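Quick illustration for those who missed Monday's session on complexes.
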Amino acid sequence: MEKLEDSYRARGLRNILVKEIAKKGIKSERILEAFRKVPRHFFFDPIFIEHAYEDKAFPIGEGQTISQPYTVAFQTELLEIKPGKKILEIGTGSGYQACILLELGAVVYSIEYNEVLYKRTVRFLPKIGYKTNLFYGDGSKGLPDHAPYDGILVTAAAPNVPSELINQLNPNGKLVIPVGGKRIQKMVKVTKIDENRISKKEYDRFSFVPLLGEEGWR
Ligand code: SAM
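Prediction with S-adenosylmethionine bound:
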């Protein structure tokens, strides 16, 4: 495939991808519409562009990946985002997931541990028209300076649920985080009911790159 502009052809490929993730169980029309809007091929090196609309994770350099579209949609659906809600993403990576959150009207904060990826994404997102709040550092303990959040989304696999992330949620806030071993994890959704109570739900089964840093895999 030649290098795509956001062309008729790219939009067609996105529509096919959206049908695929809907078939796999994503129900929210708002989320499916966000996937129709964000040109995933912009996040790929031109030589790998033919992979942009496959429902697969793909390397983005530095040993990291852009997540599988279905997984991005699944995590996003669990967050139950409404326009204007404040969401923290831990693991900016390519910035693709942040753009999906922005298309849903969220106010997005995103933190990345890898300096090369952070610098690349901070330059790149404004070039394709997305404005967000990007930070460089260890997000395994959240981003306390800007807390509280209505949702926290972790896009790397943690050994446990860091309690500091729950502390940074508003009442009724959701934390969505893959938890388990370095290869296979469960998706955990924690809802903070109030300062003393949480509810927890788990979903099988996912495979993320490891969360690094103080509360991650060191
Ligand atoms: N959300 C990304 C996207 O849309 O491209 C995909 C993220 S990739 C699966 C996971 C990211 O988490 C990597 O970029 C990795 O460097 C980052 N990461 C790992 N540990 C981290 C930490 N403690 N704080 C912040 N980012 C972290």
